[in-house]
Design goal:
eight-stranded mixed beta sheet, six-stranded mixed beta sheet, 10 helices, Heat Shock Protein 90
Length: about 500
């Protein structure tokens, strides 16, 4: 039978749009299988993609367990190209009725093997690249045991064999089909040889944005967006059309959204709008005069909220990182100061026993008095100064400070503190990298300094930087009248010991 074009004007419109990637062509047959389950009203149906790239006869197969097609329906497919019964159905994708022609981007021959529900016969519609005829016959060798359809593509091009590897196909379908897979609309299994893998959607990464959906005349615009604290790995926002299938992998590639926040690589997820139309290649949005401007307006309206969330998440992460690294600096200097007994230690970290902020949480001893170091003194001691004993002048050595989990926050208590440095951002930064405030016993670092900005996004480098600043302030405080050479020697002595106690994971 001869192939026929049912709508010449539509054919002229779409025939100039070819598939640039073989995976896009393969996706057409996955779309047809997904549409079959959607029209059948069956959720969770499985689509099988089988790759055979080795051997004398390489081939690709896409299989579903849907209703199948009768010989009459297979004839209709061949005789009514560019005319689809799915047009206007928001649950399906095959409105252009050209998916069967996608095989020409993969190989030289396509066999559509199908068994209709209620029938015991299997039929095969065969098409060949560049031919204006199709052949329909009863299939015996590949007869199906159950209703459904399998599309076989053979005579594969050599470059297709290199591009359609198992891993590439799985990753492609995860991106293009992720939203539909997450809703359980269907399952996709990719098999090559003895290796088989079920395609699963990517897990959300970051803080979920609470953005309400927006109703329009063309359906609702749904926002499924997540904000992460950094851009490693790089993230992107997809645009999803009807049937939960991705039209554009990265929204930042559209001219309308080639700016922040979409180019920060810290926003992920997808925006779904059934009103958007796809070009024939499934890789671009059709910029019509109706639905597309509505989509642009809706996305533009939420950009300020996305930017605010980006700033908030970044500040929260910076604060948490600073607290965590400050605790590590305290542990490091807990060891260093025991080695350098000649260092006068004016630095203090506030301690408190009541919940709050600004101090380390440490319960008060059950009895006795506390001094500035959090130690217990016998009642009455301290009423008048007395000469210390020999044992008090040379106390027993203390075991090195062991790593401990981050302490709870507490309200500072004036009479209690720990002999370890507190490292905090400078509330009034100048040009210097850091400064030491003797009254509060705090080392303040400058968050605006170019050196800080250079290392702030790398935890190991930032820890090294903060520890070096604390070492500098110790040395400067303890050597107020030292010559530059002596000051440099003391700095080296301190930094060598600091770095010896840096975490090994660094």
């Amino acid at each position: 039978m001869r192939l026929r074009i049912g709508n010449l004007a539509k054919a002229v419109l779409v025939t100039g749009q070819a598939y640039q990637d073989p995976k896009d062509a393969l996706n057409e047959f996955v779309s047809n299988a997904a549409d079959e389950y959607a029209q059948l009203g069956r959720k969770g149906g499985r689509i099988r993609v089988v790759l055979r790239r080795k051997g004398r006869y390489p081939a690709i197969a896409v299989d579903d367990d849907g209703r199948g097609m009768t010989p009459e329906r297979l004839k209709e497919v061949a005789r009514s190209l560019f005319v689809s019964v799915k047009a206007g159905d928001p649950a399906t994708l095959g409105e252009k009725a050209i998916g069967v022609l996608a095989f020409q981007q993969l190989g030289g021959r396509c066999d559509v093997v199908s068994r209709a529900a209620g029938s015991t016969e299997t039929w095969c519609l065969r098409l060949e690249r560049g031919k204006a005829t199709a052949h329909l016959e009863r299939e015996k060798r590949r007869a199906r045991a159950l209703p459904g359809t399998t599309v076989f593509v053979a005579d594969l091009d050599p470059d297709v064999l290199r591009m359609l590897t198992h891993r590439k196909v799985v990753e492609y379908l995860r991106k293009r089909r992720g939203p539909a897979l997450s809703t359980g609309a269907y399952e996709i299994e990719v098999t090559e040889g003895t290796r088989s893998e079920l395609v699963t959607p990517e897990a959300p990464d970051g803080v979920k944005l609470d953005v309400p959906s927006r109703p329009t005349l063309w359906g609702r615009i749904e926002f499924h967006l997540y904000v992460a604290p950094d851009a490693s790995p790089e993230r992107q926002v997809a645009v999803v059309g009807r049937a939960g299938t991705t039209i554009v992998d990265d929204m930042a590639t559209l001219d309308e959204f080639a700016d922040e926040p979409w180019t920060t690589r810290r926003v992920s997820g997808h925006i779904a709008f059934e009103g958007l139309e796809q070009t024939a290649g499934r890789r671009a949005i059709l910029r019509d005069r109706d639905a597309f401007p509505v989509f642009v307006d809706a996305v533009t309206a939420i950009q300020p909220a996305v930017m605010r969330t980006l700033d908030r998440v970044a500040k929260e992460v910076d604060a948490a990182t600073a607290d965590r690294l400050a605790e590590t600096v305290r542990r490091i200097f807990g060891r260093v100061l025991k080695e350098l007994a000649d260092i006068d230690n004016p630095m203090r970290t506030p301690i408190g026993s009541m919940p709050g902020e600004g101090a380390l949480f440490e319960p008060r001893p059950p009895s006795g008095n506390g001094d500035g170091d959090g130690k217990v003194r016998p009642p009455g001691e301290g009423d008048r100064p007395e000469m210390p004993s020999l044992s008090e002048l040379s106390p027993e050595p203390v075991d090195p400070v062991e790593p401990a989990p981050a302490p709870e926050q507490a309200r500072p208590e004036r009479s209690r503190s720990s002999r370890l440095p507190t490292v905090q951002p400078d509330p009034d930064p100048g040009e210097a990298r850091s400064r030491f405030d003797p009254e509060s016993g705090v080392v303040f670092y400058n968050e605006r300094h170019p050196d800080y900005l250079l290392v702030k996004d790398n935890d190991s480098a930032l820890l090294d930087y903060l520890a070096t600043l604390a070492a500098k302030e110790y040395v400067v405080y303890n050597n107020p009248r030292a010559a530059p050479v002596e000051l440099g020697e003391e700095m080296v002595r301190m930094v060598v010991r600091v770095r010896r106690h840096m975490p090994s994971s660094r």
